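The records we work with from here on pair a chain with its fold. Taken together, the tokens spell out the fold as the letters spell out the chain. The record below shows the convention in full.
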Amino acid sequence: MSSYLNKFGPGLLVTAAFIGPGTITTASKDGASFGFALLWTVLFATAATIVFQEMSARLGLVTRQGLGEAIHTTFEHKAIRWACCGLVAAAIGFGNAAYETGNITGAAIGLSVLSNVSTQAWSIMLGGAAFCLVDTS
């Protein structure tokens, strides 16, 4: 059984983390509120993901470099290098913040349904717990 699961690699962990309580709760609530009006966002996000993954794979296969190495070798001027690195860091930071906000909000909504504690209070408690678990210093 473990040899069968080894074929999937980290994909199962990424999927389990990506499709968490926040994703399911938020998608269900928004689907009930907006119906099919936001279906275009799913199509856009899927197309953008395919394009970005293909570009990333092509960059790695052709140059045998990661994104940081490619930025370092492509741009000679230090200001442009720092600007590119800053844009990449900002995109990762904002993306992770949005993702974590969705997860915390979804979990808070689910816990508020099970208890008499408000969604805002659960959000603060879950955010604090997540901060304590992630903070390694």
Observations:
- The chain has a mean pLDDT of 84.
